[in-house]
Amino acid sequence: MPIYGIITTVINSSLPPACAIHTHSEKGEGQASVLKCHTKHQKTGFQKETLVKEYELTVLIHPDLEADLETPLTKVRDIITNAGGSIVREDNWGKKKLQYPIKREEFAVYIYMDVELPADAPLKISNTFNITDEVLRYLLVTVDPKARAALAEQAKKAQEASDETNEA
Length: 168
Fold this sequence. Notes:
By secondary structure, the protein is α+β, with helices and mostly antiparallel strands. It folds into two domains: 3-41; 52-143, Alpha-Beta Plaits. It is 27% helix and 43% strand. The strands form two sheets. The chain has a four-stranded antiparallel beta sheet, with helices on one face. The chain has a three-stranded antiparallel beta sheet with strand order 1-2-3, with no helix packed on it. The longest helix is centred in the C-terminal third of the chain and has 23 residues, at 145-167. The chain is globular, with a radius of gyration of 27 Å. It starts with a strand and ends with a helix. Residues 1-41 have low confidence and may be disordered.
């Protein structure tokens, strides 16, 4: 007669949240007990909270695509949103000469974006940008909150100084 064991919920880094390990113990006549374990994913209604970080993304787009820039920009935006991110701010810096040739190109169109991404998104974005023909290079870095606060304070002081000179 088989004896079934206890269902134990385990919080383990190797298992997704809300997984249960079912342990079955079978004992036959004249046999030693055998443990059989398997994982079972359960939908418990718990929501996984994803933490997002702020990043700065600079993308160098192929200069031949300058005439129809919306197509590669849409592709870049889709890559970011498909990875679970969102674009906070976007700025087109225009076509600039490169310091050295990249993929035999002397010029590139610079696009700067402030993005918010979950933890696993930078790897997905990097892998996708590496095989995208429209993107010559990219730079994805985390935002330093202290540096950003210092820049905002400096801009505020500069604005106050310009207001004072305009009043005088």
